[in-house]
Amino acid sequence: MKLAIALCLSSAAAFQAPAAAPASTALRAVDESTLGVQAPAGFLDPLGFVAKDGPEAFVRRRAVERKHGRIAMVAITGVLVHNAQIEFPGYLSKSADLKFSDVPDGLGGFFSIPAAGIAQILAFCALVELAWWPANNYSGDYGCGFFGTSYNDDPETKATKLNAELANGRLAMLGIAGAMFAEGQTGETLAQQFENLSFSIV
């Protein structure tokens, strides 16, 4: 649990911040090379990837970071919601007589899903990756905005929102990784770990 707390509270700036690179056309007047450079780490590239691999590689890495951050925000939200016992009503699988409320919290929940359900999840992920959020689209604009950023915002406001998205995504990646590692180490779900510390998310 200490690992989970440490990761959740770690500075989002611990992830690699960008160096000079061409601004994405989708960001319009916002210079993406300045996004993600946040205190206290500022520009952080200890292994010299940006200088070694050039701006093209940076653009791809930024797109991957943005996408993974968005997925991690959804994932950590799902973990918190499910550990708070907030679940869909009804059946996950009528044929297997499995209700949503029967699915255990934590990593064990995945293994309680019928094979057909897992296949549907993987098929949906493939659809998102190939059609909705295609991997070859590095702009971050998948037709649904930058998680609340209006294209009519002035450059300063837009940069603030995009910086917030990157920071929250980085923190979410730390959070979901910490929750998974801590559960794998202790065998306790996130809610159980908080209860052992006299906290409660329910």
UniProtKB/TrEMBL annotation:
GO terms for cellular component: chloroplast; membrane. Chlorophyll b binds at R170. Chlorophyll a binds at E165. Pfam families: Chloroa_b-bind (PF00504). One of its GO terms (molecular function) is chlorophyll binding. Signal peptide: none annotated. It is found in: Plastid, Chloroplast. Keywords: Chlorophyll, Chloroplast, Chromophore, Photosynthesis, Plastid. Its main location: plastid. One of its GO terms (biological process) is photosynthesis, light harvesting. Belongs to the fucoxanthin chlorophyll protein family. The light-harvesting complex (LHC) functions as a light receptor, it captures and delivers excitation energy to photosystems with which it is closely associated. Energy is transferred from the carotenoid and chlorophyll C (or B) to chlorophyll A and the photosynthetic reaction centers where it is used to synthesize ATP and reducing power. This is Uncharacterized protein. The lineage of its organism: Eukaryota, Sar, Stramenopiles, Ochrophyta, Pelagophyceae.
